[in-house]
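Lab notebook, bench 4. The sequencing result for the construct came back, and we need a structural model before the next group meeting so we can plan mutations. Quick request posted to the team channel:

Model the 3D structure of this chain.
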Amino acid sequence: MKGIVLLGEGDLAVKEFPDPKPGPGEVVVRVKAAAICGSDIYVYHSNKKWREGRPDVIAGHEPAGIVEEIGEGVTLVKPGDRVTVYHYIGCGKCKQCLAGYWQWCPETKGLGTHVHGADADFLLVKEQNCFVMPEELSFIDGAFMACAAGTTYSALNKLQPNGTTSLVVIGLGPVGLSGVLMAKAMGARVIAIGRRKIRLDLAGELGADHVLDADDPELPNTMRNLLPHGVDMVYETSGAPEAHKFMLQILRRGGKACMVAGRGPADSLSASTIIAKQLTIHGSFVLPIWMVPDMAAFIVRHKLPFEKMVTHRFRIEQADEAFRLFDSGECGKVVFEW
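Done. Here's the predicted structure in token form:
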């Protein structure tokens, strides 16, 4: 089979690997859709020296596909099932795993990081990582569920937006755009803030009530005119220190925020502002596996059109072009299809 290996410093290779065979409790998934995540770009640009002496690991952690083969003892799925795949593999025995937080397991292994990932013809995982999708959901929906939509659904469940709340989404990559779509489904008045025109346009198409350019010098005044007393909630997806500062400025007293990305100095969050305005700041890391069925039901119930976010589709042989495009930011979601 073919698989994508990220080599660092903007380089990658499509390499040949043996087709996987399932052991006891394991499943081989024939991948039908696998999306590129922003976190893949960090590896794509990493220093090549860290790879010296390490075996090749296939990239990717946003897959959906069809169960191809099952190992001995597998009962949760069968060949032919359409599945999305949870991208952290826990030990299954520790306190975090038993609570459904596999991403916090001390021995957790991430697809595309510690073990072969989704950007390949086939994917080998534990049966517990496979969730059979409702027939209403496409492979594209499944790829979103694996990370971008899953991260967002978990974050918004911490904020609990509804028809009485205003919510600002900062950063309009696929995670932020998922925030626009899902927060609107929850009933919120949504203000989307980003930079790339293509993504600003997508935010409008996905239902944002107001779409604002982060580089507009009048942005603070525009926000004050829209919400004189401040916004109820902020979903911060950019990780930029300046976005963190702006988030604290625009929140009303007693407001809430959820952050799913971080880069730059820790002092980008002002303790004095958080205290004086009595703000609640949540961190959120992907989603716990127990939340996957709830998310699937939510997507089906609201008929969420994640496919609208997909602006470019590639074959795995076009990996170099696909990663260069996603790295540029001049796109929505970029997906490999088989």
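Residues 16 and 280 are 49 Å apart (CA to CA).
Will bring this to the meeting.
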